[in-house]
């Protein structure tokens, strides 16, 4: 079977720890996925990148095409400034490569606000969507729950939350392979009388729109990790805090585990046997680098946002996610879903008038 | 050394699983704290409670005084209805016992909204505070971080967030024994330009008020479990979702641990040795019942809110928290802090005019 090689456009200058993160990430993902035919279009400063690439594995060298850029977006740049000043930067050019059809997906660890703003300008929004949302795929005992928005939009109206529901549902179908994903709206209580005005209005809008999807209603914070619904919708302020709180909690539990495993001689013996059979798998699950990468939804193009502070292992996870979605049809699924929303709204306004 | 026995006023009808939860909770806490001289004023339906108390341990029977009530607040009651109709209920009478000086602290697992509303009417707010906040003491590697509000106020203005900071700081000093607790404001990014209008305005208000306490500025979700600051301030919507997300994450990790400990024979041998030395301690830390209980702040009286769905073990934790704070001077600390805020505001308006 032949397979078209996905081409990943990499903004190599965005990570807090410098361009080595991107090059190491490529080496790691090629080790993790030895069968992948993926190629990498690496955007950034040639003077810094060329020696890093020269020192990389033979396979990484073969798969990388370096594209020099003179400038880069800094972590402190405001989004509006970044849009005006960053033409020709590694972030801009990485996005332009997807726009021009040279690559399938962008991966960047750069400034989130700037990435959002430049993506909007370069790739443009899908019809019916106001701003991109960032989705995170949260591991649960049942698979993955897609949570959005996790940080792109700190203030969201009810209409935007409905858009997130539509996009998240399409994303779950396309990327996690479910046929009828369930959608929940994050709130402080499951009873309908609880919650703030925005989520209550969004709940009514989703019910009124009569979109043909499985809407569960309100869910609470602990339902995310339980995997109660396949998609959890929230504003970017709450979603970002929920995601980071979960990350911090995982780190805390890992700390307690280490403490408990070294608290006595018998515990150390136990940990020794566990290391032989089963603990590595757990350790990998507890490693925040193993769940790195948020996907920007609502754009005419696929963009993966990596944590800024990640290392090569974490960046590899974001690249792996990019390779995964490159083969999916999530853009067309989102479009189809948005059309269903528009039709539902048109039908409703005809009935109302 | 003689010690005044704290008297805990118990709303025995609030738990989802019925009045046995309260009676079992009292038995458990007396086993956990064999030295405590605490006594319990138990409010509820005598027909249901008398047989449960008769079947309890001799020590529990000796420490319980049953106070019959004819009615109870239901989980579905709206707060405004509850205030009008619940005079004489177990919740109302449990609060009135503190108001009348018969008890030191109330513990209830009942309807949160009703508990807030009835507390306001029965105990009244402290001068300068608009509505009560619920604080949770979050375990961290460094001790405890007090997070508030975790569910009492779903929409908060900047001024309210400043009140939470003031109350949380006083609570941490009084209950967790720190001399100069640090205070952080929960946000999506540590840079000042990030976040929504409310948190940015609250940040300015705290800085402008020049209250003599250690204000750290913005913190992110993962900083809570790290214990970066002693107090984390947020609105009740975000705080409730953060708290429940952390609870769900702990459950998920515990699930993965069980999976890993039974994944192979060597893993099972390891888990066996770990069970002998160290794992119990970890298991207790991962048990959500071991961190049950939020304290309502801003009232002229001490109120502990237990999870509605808890069992006897979890209710015992909430009772233990009640016994802890009964001996603290947090009400006077909060008053002193609120006076500092008022003075700072007066001084500022004099300078401004």
Provide key terms for this protein.
homodimer, 353 residues, alpha/beta, Isopropylmalate Dehydrogenase, 2 domains, 11-stranded mixed β-sheet, 16% strand
In short:
The structure is a homodimer of 353-residue chains. With 353 residues, chain A is of the alpha/beta class.
Description:
The structure is a homodimer of 353-residue chains. Chain A is α/β, with parallel strands linked by helices and 353 residues long. Chain A has two domains: 1-129 and 298-328, Isopropylmalate Dehydrogenase (3-Layer(aba) Sandwich); 133-292, Isopropylmalate Dehydrogenase, CATH 3.40.718.10. Chain A contains 14 helices and eleven strands. Chain A has helices spanning 20-32, 46-54, 58-63, 79-85, 90-99, 112-123, 158-176, 197-209, 221-226, 236-261, 265-276, 279-286, 312-326, 330-352; strands at 7-11, 39-44, 64-68, 105-108, 133-140, 143-148, 182-186, 214-219, 231-233, 294-297, 302-305. In chain A, strands 3-2-1-4-11-10-5-6-9-7-8 form an eleven-stranded mixed β-sheet, with helices on both faces. In chain A, a hairpin with a 2-residue loop joins strand 5 and strand 6. In chain A, helix 4 packs across helix 6 (112-123). Chain A is globular, with a radius of gyration of 21 Å. The first copy, chain A, starts with 6 loop residues before the first strand and ends with a helix. At the A-B interface, helix 9, helix 10, helix 11 and helix 12 of A face helix 9, helix 10, helix 11 and helix 12 of B.
